[in-house]
Amino acid sequence: MSDEKQQQNLISCPGCKATIAWSLQNPHRPFCSEQCKNKDFVAWANGDNALPGQPDYDDMFTSELPDRDY
Predict the structure, then answer these.
(1) What is the Cα–Cα distance from 37 to 58, expressed in whole angstroms?
(2) Spatial separation of the C-alpha atoms in residues 44 and 69, rounded to whole Å
C-alpha cells in the first residue's frame, strides 16, 4: 500500500489528539481507546460539550411541552 493511501487512513483521536489508524480492528474508533471514549461521553453528559445554537425549549421536561398538531 502506498504511503499516501496509508496516510488517508490516519485520524486524530478527538479526546487526546493522538494519531491513530482508522481501522475495523479498533472498536473504539474514532477514539484511540475506551478511556478516551468514556471521557468524551462524561463530558457530554455533564454538559461540558454542547452543540451551538438556541434550544427551542430551555430547561423544560418533555411532559411540560405544549401539544403540537403535526
Answers:
(1) 28
(2) 32
Place of cell 474508533: 29
Distance of CA 19 to the CA centre of its chain: 17
Task: Determine the Cα–Cα distance for residues 57 and 64; give it in Å rounded to an integer.
Answer: 10
d(CA 44, CA 50): 7
The answer to whether 23 and 9 are in contact (CB under 8 A) is: yes
Give the pLDDT means over successive 10-residue stretches in the chain (70 positions): 61 95 92 96 91 67 68
30: amino acid identity, one letter: P
Is the whole-model pTM more than 0.90? no
Q: What domains lie within the chain, and their CATH numbers?
A: 3-49 (3.30.50.10)
